């Protein structure tokens, strides 16, 4: 039997084209998606990768053959597809491999209202059907095939986002945006149109071969061009989007990266001003600053595991108004609990433009601690090394341990989390403390145990 375990991940489908998957398989995924969701209509979009239009159209054909009408929205960002799913109340599929190299592609799927499709919410069933059909032949077509139509939702998406953030009274700002040849080059000009911004575009040409740098702003080397351009142009800030433009990173007027935890805290404060007493979701590797700021602004902070499915589940369960991850994914109740870096970017622009200070001065209030960033270590025995960490720290006075996600070790002055990668033989370490010297000391001690 065909085995699709290498490309069907926990939250999406992702692999090398055409080696691991191709258009005939995409067609089967389309048929399986419609079968599992019992949808009579779906919406489909794609990014700028060379393989995306063909894969997307094949998926649409498979869905239509099973009787579902398909609305193709064409080139779009992932959060634009979520918008279409929410606004049209349809299940959706987005063809993208986000920040992965050019030879990759994938599918992010959602139920209607942008609710996530993951292993436990349909993806395992979609995989099982696609495996069976690839072995035994495609399913019988429906008596009446669905109709495939095209619709451009970019202007509606931009208008919806601008309706959520008041940018009318801000001072004029100069902003450099690095789209990394990804979908930000498609969405930013429309979303920012008419706002009091002097836009300096970097790599807005859509090119799925990523000729300038990887579209992964989480890696510091991919921010270098943006940082230089901010300094060269005297800009107020810089924004960097990943390949499918659902994550957004900021750099301040000095070219220094702004911690996504600080952005989470800033946006949380703004959302709590609109929705007093609301709940804010944050994952366990965001800064101590986040729950502190939430409490100071009268909100309730809820801590979760790392990963968008956990955030979205908690958003729905608690009725939270906003959620943030240290990976620069930002989730909004007003956006169907889905993540949108663009909306977070508009909040940053609104906050900065509403006062006269610099971005570095603005975020200082929300960036209170020193942090190591995520440090990966290749280990042969992940569980054994985590057990060694536990043995090292559990009997120390003033130390508390929890296992919400991996192992978190906390004291009054510092904390660290160590957790295993699901896909690689890695342990990931994050350390935060009240000062940089303590971060260095705790980091080095933890790494000595992890890498022993």
UniProtKB/TrEMBL annotation:
Record key words, sorted: Isomerase, Magnesium, Metal-binding, Phosphoprotein
Keyword presence, Ubl conjugation: no
All residue ranges annotated as the Alpha-D-phosphohexomutase alpha/beta/alpha domain in the record: 6-134, 157-255, 263-369
Residue intervals of the Alpha-D-phosphohexomutase C-terminal domain: 374-446
Keyword check for Phosphoprotein: yes
Family affiliation: Belongs to the phosphohexose mutase family.
Cofactor requirements of the protein: Mg(2+)
Chain segments annotated as coiled-coil in the UniProt record: none
Name of this protein: Phosphomannomutase/phosphoglucomutase
Organism, as annotated: Streptomyces fildesensis
